[in-house]
Amino acid sequence: DAGVIQSPRHEVTEMGQEVTLRCKPISGHNSLFWYRQTMMRGLELLIYFNNNVPIDDSGMPEDRFSAKMPNASFSTLKIQPSEPRDSAVYFCASSTGDIHGNTIYFGEGSWLTVV
Amino acid sequence: EDKVVQSPLSLVVHEGDTVTLNCSYEVTNFRSLLWYKQEKKAPTFLFMLTSSGIEKKSGRLSSILDKKELFSILNITATQTGDSAIYLCAVLIGSNYKLTFGKGTLLTVNP
Predict the structure, then answer these.
(1) Using alpha carbons only, what angle is made at residue B97 by residues A88 and B86, rounded to the nearest 5 degrees?
(2) What digits encode the pLDDT tens for the residues A4-41?
């Protein structure tokens, strides 16, 4: 299994530009999560989907952030317009949601720098 | 608001030492507590704990959960430099399996 695949791995962009991060979850996983990690705040849950439906987006910082999951194998996290304080590592993760053995598998992250 | 608190935030030890990392939580609809190790990239899964008092072990690492006092500990015996990492505690919440993380403990093991 290829695991959770994220792209781009690294992005440097100028303030005000649109940023789109992409994620392909593990095949068969029905839950998908977007996390943001910074030194100050640690790992924060931004939004998660179950069966392609957004369940909880209370962690999305503000209207500049949006996430979609058009099908079971693809999700995007978009920041428009980007700001320097958005610089962080953005992780996508997926899980089966199996109550007996639930673990969440992380992608390798998208390292975003907004200058 | 759901809360997961880890301590200490950072720890420096020498090879061979034993360390204990702490995680306390205040959440609604607790399901499980998970420990992850994060080196340079993504967090990797260590343990999932659902029942109180049952120790989980993997080599030199072990962990236990106390659901009455709402905490868990992760022990690492005979530490090695390869154990240097951020150790993350997370709590699985609710019927939709929302995972809330603590800020992590940065462990540095010096030779």
Answers:
(1) 40
(2) 999 999 999 999 999 999 999 999 998 999 999 998 88
Q: How far is A73 from chain B (nearest CA, A)?
A: 19
pLDDT at A101 over 70: no
Mean pLDDT of chain B: 92
Q: What would the two tokens of residue A89 be? A: 């590592």
CB contact under 8 A, B101 and A43: yes
For A8-109, list the strands marked E by DSSP.
10-13, 19-24, 31-38, 42-50, 53-56, 65-71, 74-79, 88-95, 104-106
Amino acid at B28: T
- Mean per-residue pLDDT of chain A: 91
Residue A42: list chain B partners with CB under 8 A.
88, 101-104
Cβ atoms A89, A110 nearer than 8 A = yes
Q: Which residue has the tokens 């949006």?
A: A66
A42, A56, A91 ranked by CB distance to B42: nearest:
A91
Contact A23, A5 (CB under 8 A): yes
Work out whether the CA dihedral B81, A1, B56, A104 comes out positive or negative.
positive
Q: Do B42 and A35 touch (CB under 8 A)?
A: no
